[in-house]
Amino acid sequence: MKTVTIIDYGMSNLRSVSKAVEQVAEKNWQVLVSDNAKVILRADKVIFPGQGAIGNCMTLLNQTGIADVIRQTLENKPFLGICLGLQTLLTTSEENGGVAGFDWATGTVRRFVNPLIDSDTGEHLKIPHMGWNQVHNNHHPLWTGIPENSRFYFVHSFYVDPKDSGIIAGTTSYGGIDFTSAIAQNNVFAVQFHPEKSQHVGLTLLKNFLDW
Q1: What residues make up the domain containing 50?
Q2: Residue 96 and residue 83: Cα distance in Å, rounded?
Q3: Which residues are catalytic?
Q4: Contact 205, 81 (CB under 8 A)
Q5: End-to-end alpha-carbon separation of the chain, Å?
Q6: Span 168-176, mean pLDDT?
Q7: Is the bond leading into 49 cis (omega within 30 degrees of zero)?
Q8: How much is the average pLDDT of 184-193?
Q9: Is the pLDDT confidence value at 119 over 80?
Q10: Please, which pLDDT band fits residue 124 given cuts at 50, 70 and 90?
Q11: I need a labelling partner for 84 at 20 to 30 A (CA). Which of 7, 109, 124, 202 fits?
């Protein structure tokens, strides 16, 4: 039986992620939630969801040793990052006064800066960016069966700004800013939105990850 392990570092609500993956997993998949290095490294595929502040996240990952496990996983194992699981992949974040990430992708995690103005209505937009928004997707197997400009669910105040545009797999517009909402390279795919909260298109993406 194949295994997909969802990384538990003590700071994320994992129930909705695990339930969504279980919903699309076929009988030959075992879905695990674990903070055990051996369990994570033995998995066929790994999902790293995160929420909250990146400073606390990276501190916990380093204290528990899971940071080293993630670095190993990023080298050769199919990896899906969600929300902070995307942001931690970059070099550094402006959040919490500046926090070093895994530097898997060169770039900076930047904060949305006021004022953000809706181009259609002229109204001021709130930070965090919360709710449904369109994703313009580039060609990648994880977008299979997902129509262009499908709407996914977002909750974030910071967005990734990778230096290499070649890894950008999806973009989204908010308040006049076209930000990167998905990146992909080799065995890694990571998104800013929450597929587990994005109904049919989110479940399709999770199923595509298992099939990838």
Answers
A1: 2-211
A2: 17
A3: 83, 194, 196
A4: no
A5: 16
A6: 95
A7: no
A8: 98
A9: no
A10: confident
A11: 124
Total domains in the chain come to 1
Q: Determine the Cα–Cα distance for residues 190 and 160; give it in Å rounded to an integer.
A: 11
Split at pLDDT 50, 70, 90, the class of 14 is confident
Identify which of 125, 168, 163 has the alpha carbon closest to the alpha carbon of residue 143: 168
C-alpha closest to that of 93 among 111, 113, 108, 112: 108
Q: Which two tokens stand for residue 75?
A: 């080298």
**Cβ-contact 105, 116 below 8 angstroms:** no
How confident is residue 117, by pLDDT bands cut at 50, 70 and 90?
Answer: confident
The 3-state DSSP class for residue 105 equals strand
> Would you state the structure tokens that stand for residue 7, as one six-digit string?
């990384």
Rounded CA separation 167/185 (Å): 6
- Percentage above 90 pLDDT, the chain: 86
> CA 155 to CA 30: how far, in whole Å?
28
SS3 category, 90? strand
The CATH number of the domain holding residue 9 is 3.40.50.880
